[in-house]
């Protein structure tokens, strides 16, 4: 008989436990949840169920997640389902109060900590939580996103278009500078690889017009280096030939000098005419003049060779210096544009949130749900999807941004 009564009592209290807003057994209890406990036992003398008033009643889970009950003490409730908590309370009653057979416990979740909806919503504030409530549904509770009334929309459309156009223009400039920066970085890596064969490129090469500019720059630099190397080869060949000619002229000068000395000795003895001496003297002067011209030409060629060799060595260094200078300029411009873009986006978002502007008709509107939630006693902030469920006590901030379809592709 006792077993039958206990079974009936269990069925009754199970129905009670699964009633109300916490009907879903999957719901896990949170801090500040409000609970209504009914503890029933079978009284054989009276042949009826009786309520244990000392334990039954309304309770609230503490911030630490503890349920404090008279006669029983503290029980950790956070994270448990209502049926699981009921079974634990039954065990504690039987163990600590020595009641046999053990009474049955029914738990009804009667209240939750509210959620708070902020941001670009029509009616910000606190709203009652229910299990399974999603971010998108919370937005609906707050009457949706702020919208201008039809009578005011036309008045602010021009300002909206101007703000949207400014944002798109800055985004286009930033994109172009980022592509230019990618090209400059790739060019620097190629220059470093040319100076050190051990350096390998890890960045992707740019595409489109910037890729074409990079290819043209590197081809022009390679062609200039090739011309300088060809010039060095020509100058070295000229120097070698002029050295040979100078050697030949020196030998001719030596022979002519010796012949002139012999003829001069014969003339002094009256064995030859003065005309022969004059002819050899003229020939010797001519040879020395040509040798001097060759030596000057060889010196000039060597100077040109030194310049060509210096230009070849400086080709990579000069190119690297110019590229670094351009990269520095691009980084400065990017930093400035980033600030201007952030300012324009903030002004536009503030105008839309204040009802002073309409969403950009040329842009796709994106809604972001940012939730602040207490986890292990500390607040954390995370971005969730529209269909993600909320938890009691969540603070959800709704914001929206405009994204051109061309940029999202």
Summarize this structure briefly.
With 409 residues, the protein is an alpha+beta fold. It contains 7 helices and 11 strands.
The whole-angstrom Rg is 48 Å
Total strand count, please? Answer: 11
Largest sheet: 5 strands, mixed
Distance between the termini: 72 Å
What is the strand content?
Answer: 15-25%
How do the strands line up in the largest sheet?
A: 8-7-11-9-10
List the defining traits of the structure above:
rod-shaped, alpha+beta, disordered C terminus, four-stranded antiparallel beta sheet, disordered N terminus, 56% helix, 409 residues
Draw up the topology in text:
Layout: H1 2-17, E1 34-43, E2 48-51, E3 57-60, E4 66-69, E5 73-76, H2 82-97, E6 104-111, E7 115-119, E8 125-127, H3 135-141, H4 150-195, H5 208-268, H6 274-353, E9 364-375, E10 378-384, E11 395-403, H7 405-408
Parallel strand pairs: 7-11
Antiparallel strand pairs: 1-2, 1-3, 1-6, 4-5, 7-8, 9-10, 9-11
